Amino acid sequence: MSALLEVDQLEVNFGGRVSAVRGASVTVERGETHCLVGESGCGKSVTALAVMNLLARGARRSAKRLAFEGQDLTGLSDSGMAHLRGNAMAMIFQEPMTSLNPAYTVGSQMTEVLRRHKKTTQRAATDRAADLLARVGITAPGLRLGQFPHQLSGGLRQRVMIAMALMCDPKLLIADEPTTALDVTVQAQILRLLAGLQRDLGLGMLLITHDLGIVARVAHRVSVMYAGEVVESAPTAELFANPKHPYTRGLLRCVPVPGKIKRDEPLGSIPGTVPRIGPGFEGCAFRDRCDFADVTCAHAIPRHAASVAHDFLCRLPA
Ligand SMILES: Nc1ncnc2c1ncn2[C@@H]1O[C@H](COP(=O)(O)OP(=O)(O)OP(=O)(O)O)[C@@H](O)[C@H]1O
Ligand code: SF4
Ligand SMILES: [Mg+2]
């Protein structure tokens, strides 16, 4: 059976000047949580938006393969893609107000999603919305359905967003930093909720997060992005136990065991910043910050396999 989501050699350019994503490959299997990590500006959000075909105007997307359940997404019409979005594949953003409309009640927005995609009565849609609000831990769902987004706290809005994303029973959920706008205790609750839903509903999830504690706890696989490339990808335990790429090692600060990472443990900081890469760039984009860089790092870099399921992009041997 094909993977739930296959992204092979994705490229995204903005106006021919910024190569935001450069040959990135990411696969999400059914029922798997795949975490995407990397510093700010590495191309994580652009990758997620490219999958959903929600890139800003002027962006150019291409891929060797971009497929959902074996169905090619690059050849899909706008209406075909709109049908998939919010239906079989749904996305949760960092700031729920980007997706919630302040002018409509929670109930009308949630039922609208379902009625757009599935044949159903208003009554059944309202019942499902109330069930899902309860499922995401919202008390008095009937009351909340009649409220407007501004009447809810940030944490409640994010729960509503999650419930809304689940309205059509998606198989894939893409969550882009779903908790960074929230305070720390609420962040932990929301992430626990997402992890529980993923398990119970068997969702495939592409989760973008800076929180290594979360990665260690919920991810089955981790891909590390740097300057638009996936520089390392491995099953979670293997990545933490045996990081290969110097950038990954910097991010993890060589933390050896997932169980030893505390909640809210951020990515490690590495001196310097992520370069902005334009077309025609050659060699390793990390070379200005890498302790192991030598002249060969300015040329094409091989991708090595550290094991069957673990690969990395660096001249250093596996
Ligand atoms: N609309 C746009 N026009 C031009 N460049 C863009 C646009 N959107 C993103 N970029 C550029 O693409 C690169 C990747 O951005 P992206 O938002 O994917 O980073 P990110 O990894 O999600 O970072 P963060 O952790 O801060 O969310 C950055 O250099 C960014 O400036
Ligand atoms: S290719 Fe060279 S510069 Fe890049 S991470 Fe490996 S050793 Fe460092
Ligand atoms: Mg982002």
Plain-language structure description:
The chain is α/β, with parallel strands linked by helices. The chain has helices at 44-52, 78-84, 106-117, 122-135, 141-145, 154-166, 184-201, 212-218, 236-241, 246-252; strands spanning 5-14, 18-28, 33-37, 59-62, 65-68, 71-72, 89-92, 172-176, 204-208, 221-226, 229-235, 303-307, 310-313. Strands 7-8-9-3-10-11-13-12 form an 8-stranded mixed β-sheet, with helices on both faces. Strands 1, 2, 4, 5 and 6 form a 5-stranded antiparallel β-sheet that branches. Helix 3 crosses helix 4 and helix 4 (122-135) crosses helix 6 (154-166). The mean pLDDT is 90. The site of iron/sulfur cluster (SF4) has 13 residues, from loops. Adenosine-5'-triphosphate is lined by residues 14, 18, 20, 38, 40-46, 56, 276. This is ABC transporter ATP-binding protein. Residues 5-252 form the ABC transporter domain. GO terms for molecular function: ATP binding; ATP hydrolysis activity.
Rg from alpha-carbon coordinates: 20 Å
Ranges where pLDDT stays below 50 over 5 or more residues in a row are none
How many angstroms separate the termini? 30 Å
What name does CATH use for the topology of the largest domain?
Rossmann fold
* Beta-strand content bin: 15-25%
CATH level-four homologous superfamily name of the largest domain: P-loop containing nucleotide triphosphate hydrolases
Hetero groups: adenosine-5'-triphosphate, iron/sulfur cluster, magnesium ion
* Overall number of strands: 13
Helix residue percentage = 25-40%
What is the domain tally? Answer: 2
Largest sheet: 8 strands, mixed
- Which CATH class of the largest domain? Alpha Beta
CATH architecture of the largest domain: 3-Layer(aba) Sandwich
Number of helices: 10
- Overall shape: globular
What is the strand arrangement across the widest sheet?
7-8-9-3-10-11-13-12
Alpha-beta classification: alpha/beta
Keywords: ATP-binding, Cell membrane, Membrane, Nucleotide-binding, Transport
Protein name: ABC transporter ATP-binding protein
Membrane topology: Peripheral membrane protein
Pfam families: ABC_tran (PF00005), oligo_HPY (PF08352)
